[in-house]
Amino acid sequence: QLPDAVVIVLFGATGDLAGRMVLPALVEVHRRGLMPDAWRLVGVAADELDDDAFRDRFQAAVAASEHGLCDDWDEVRDRTRYCGGRFGPDDDAGLPTLLEEVRAELRADTGAEPLVLHFLAVPPAAFGPITRGLGAHGLAEGARVVFEKPYGTSLASFEELDATVKEVLAEEQIFRIDHFLGKEGVQTIYVLRFANQLFSSEWNRASVAQVQIDVPEDLDVTNRIGFYEATGAALDMLVTHLFQVAGQVAMEPPADLRDPASVIAAREAALRAFRPLDPAEDVVLGQFEGYRDIEGAAPDSTQDTFVAARLWVDTERWRGVPFLLRTGKRMAAKEQRITLVLSPPFGPLGGELEEPNTIEIDFAGEGEVALGITVKTPGPELTYSSGRARLDLDDVPGGEGLSPYASLINDALIGDRSLYTTENGLRAAFTAFAPLQGPDRPTPLPYAPGSWGPEEAHRLAAPHRWMLGE
Ligand code: BG6
């Protein structure tokens, strides 16, 4: 339920993430009428700016975003305040005073106590100090707190961070972002599965031979080389986004799709059924040729810019069905696709089909659902061809998609954590990922920029093939 009034406190408000994603998404939520009438934004960052200087930056960021400024921009500008300085357990940057002033205004306007939503768009090293600061300065009680990714970089660092955060916040107050869960195409999995007999009856090992979750990117890493040298593709994308999407595909039907607790429990159970990766058998790492020549990369760097993994989900529904996960930088294309590769039917043609049927969900942009099916080739002969039937989610009548960040901010406002990651879910993800962070981590194999990654990755998809690519 939407509160009567809300103050969004954005930490890292002058940073890159805030400018590119969070500030435009806040305006999108406002433009779509999803904010309570009484809302305010308080930007917090180290830069010493006055309100107007921050509002100018806010305006520039939103003007440069996809939808640009909203019609009532001046009003949004007036809702905004700024608080500059260091914030942590020992420094309050003047935030408690400013926040109380803003809350009092809203209280006077609405008669209600406003919800405070802290949004931590800051580097992970700042998560602990800021959370402790919220506790020390009395700003945590009753608040919700959104944490950006990555929330931990290993099982141990996740546990340590979560223990620090839990000294101040209860799990129910914590909203850990994985923006892939906010994508329209990923959210549509629920309805596709649970509202269509056609899909719900086939969504299991009896019909599905393989699940592929494929996120090739043509992006370079030159402008984020410092981050990349410290992170790599597997940590940046696999244990986070791809595992969470795999959890969405693999989960059992929740008892009640509108009850967040029931959805969370279903996804956690799926993640807990992920078998820890076997690096020797089931993982191929790659590094694009030329990576080590990038200024800032170690000349002998063994960082991965590509990962393909075969994940096993040990539930009755999925046992024996490989989940093939793949992503990398400087690959041949940028796509984001889930493909369920179906087993052939048992009828008279089943034995001779070369192309499997597929159920495909594209979750880039607005999203698309497609079916790969076999039909008779029109004409006199009984021959057949494969084709694709597509539904653009953007064309679904009555709808207008939300960007992932706007969708997740809306959920935080109404207190729905079902598309956020949880303590149990992340613990399970890092546990399944841990073998890739140990001594058995394979050496990345070289691949040509603009290719589909190392040849070796094809082995994982046998007897089928990666449905995207050559
Ligand atoms: C980020 C990763 O979380 O997600 C990037 O750090 C990646 O490496 C990006 O490119 C992909 O996000 P999107 O919004 O393009 O799907």
Automatic annotation (TrEMBL):
It catalyses: D-glucose 6-phosphate + NADP(+) = 6-phospho-D-glucono-1,5-lactone + NADPH + H(+). It comes from the Bacteria. InterPro entries: G6P_DH, G6P_DH_AS, G6P_DH_C, G6P_DH_NAD-bd, NAD(P)-bd_dom_sf. Residues 9-187 form the Glucose-6-phosphate dehydrogenase NAD-binding domain. SUPFAM superfamilies: Glyceraldehyde-3-phosphate dehydrogenase-like, C-terminal domain (SSF55347), NAD(P)-binding Rossmann-fold domains (SSF51735). NADP(+) binds at A46, K149. Pathway: Carbohydrate degradation; pentose phosphate pathway; D-ribulose 5-phosphate from D-glucose 6-phosphate (oxidative stage): step 1/3. GO terms for cellular component: cytosol. The active site is at H241. GO terms for biological process: glucose metabolic process; pentose-phosphate shunt, oxidative branch. It is an enzyme of class 1 (oxidoreductase). Its EC number is 1.1.1.49. Keywords: Carbohydrate metabolism, Glucose metabolism, NADP, Oxidoreductase. Residues 191-464 form the Glucose-6-phosphate dehydrogenase C-terminal domain. Substrate binds at H179, K183, E217, D236, K329, K334. One of its GO terms (molecular function) is NADP binding. Belongs to the glucose-6-phosphate dehydrogenase family. Catalyzes the oxidation of glucose 6-phosphate to 6-phosphogluconolactone. This is Glucose-6-phosphate 1-dehydrogenase. It comes from Georgenia yuyongxinii. The gene is zwf.
